[in-house]
Amino acid sequence: MLSFLPAPIRGGIAVIALTLNIIFWCIPLLVIAFFKLIIPIAAWREASTKILIWIAENWIDVNRATYALLNKDEWDVQGVENVADLSQEEWYLVISNHQSWDDILVLQSIFNRRIPFLKFFIKKNLIYVPIIGLAWWALDFPFIERYSREYLAKHPEKKGKDLETTRQACEKFQTTPISVVNFLEGGRFTQAKHERQQSPYKHLLRPKAGGIALVLNLMHGRIRTLLNVTIVYPDGVPSFWQYLSGQTGCIVVRIEKSDIPPHYAAGDYINDPEFKAEFQAWVNQLWEQKNALIDNLLVETSSKRAAP
Description:
By secondary structure, this protein is an alpha/beta fold.
């Protein structure tokens, strides 16, 4: 409705609206989280978790409505058109390529209230982001401290800390269905990273399989369904400001739903070389298919625009 406004004005309105939305929902979110922390009653903690998720889902709904009001970017989403294809009563593993912070907003817009609330593994230093960091903490997002090989060589006592953090997070995920999101590339795609890795995939960094193998194992078979998401920005990867101000252009998303082989939940990725090789081969195949899909989507979009 307000897409006729100049982009800078739309972006400014979006920033103000999103800031007010954060403040509005974070106040009750943090209050409930505080009482969840200090009241050691299992029934209360389970109920408060559901309340916190309800607050977060409303927060996302308002963000999505704000974006729709201000912008007219074209969305092309295919893969799970039928609502019955998804359920909020099932645990999911969601994987995606990663190019921008906007990917998170895209995933939230598509999946909010269609599957259980999305949970990301977040770098530990992001807990210090004003307000948002505390909100992530309140929603039980796991904070991971990533160490380089050089750092671990000097501080061997830090080895295994991420494993313990992941184990603790997965214990919390046992009782309430959730959707674990993992960007297998380990960070946002850049050409510099691509060249440094000598990635065999034209549009992707090399995938890291260990994280999802560990999550599947620690969830003891609860996660049985994979949602493989491919996000393409044919007009170029947008900045966060471009996304807010409606300068993203076309957003193309393809979702493939598939069953996760049951024995992957019982495999030992760390200590079993044969299982590790098999699991890595499965992930590499997913990545080869994703890379080819991105190629096809870019060609398809270009052809549609060139057609008279």
